[in-house]
Amino acid sequence: MSTHPDITALRLFSAMELPPAEQERTASHLAACPSCRDEMRRAGEIVERVRQATELPVPEGTWERIQARRAAGDRVIPPALPVAPAARRETVPSRFPRRAAAIVLACAGVASAAAAVPMLRDWMAPAEQATGSSKAPSAPAQPTTVPNAPPPAPPAAPRVAGSSIAPVGGVAAVDVDGATSELRIRVRLADQAEVEVRASGAAADAVFHPRKGRIRIQDPGPGQLEIILPREARRVTVRVNGRPQLVAEDGRIDVLRQAHDTIDSEIVLSPVPR
User: Fold this and answer.
1) Per-residue confidence at 95, pLDDT binned at 50, 70, 90?
2) Above 90 in pLDDT, residue 216?
3) How far apart are alpha carbons 271 and 265 in whole angstroms?
4) Where are the domains of the chain?
5) Considering the entire predicted model, what is its pTM?
């Protein structure tokens, strides 16, 4: 057989309906032609998938309608099995899908199943692209939106609180009561007129009692207190849980207890519970 079998011959061969001599010649050709043999193997695999995907009865006149559709230029392309790029055969791109489409649908008699089974419709798009055939581009997928969905919650704002007082005659006091060892107290000097206390984290839950020349911070939670003292004040005393911790005088800080650390120009106190 000098040429490849046509569609009708392959269909009749697969159904064992060729005359004996022609059946033998087609079998000999397939034995010697890897290309046709590979197409028949793929067609058989697709037929099996189609049989597993649907139980629809085969309508009468299926093959005649397929021939009529092909004569009218209509093409139905079943799926090609995925092949690794390095293992693809170098063949004419449109040859296998066109021939296998008619072979598979003719052998299985499932032309109507191609429209009824979603799996086959999903497979058709990759096969059509593989043939390089022209096809109207589909509309881009639109993002799915949920109607009346609430907007995402904004990030929680950091918890802060604070208060300030003015020294009286250059003298002031800061009292921190109810502090635990988890509280971090940072003290520094600044060029400003007032004593300022800022609380962040759980320490912002503290109760602030500003008075004339004195401010009391009660029950700060585990967080941070920042105490900013006027550099020009004559004397400012910081007490924690009733114990004097440091004194700022004339632009200088004297630490009265050893439970502290320094970060640059700041003094970091570690409260000792009562």
Assistant:
1) very low
2) yes
3) 19
4) 7-83+92-130, 160-269
5) 0.44
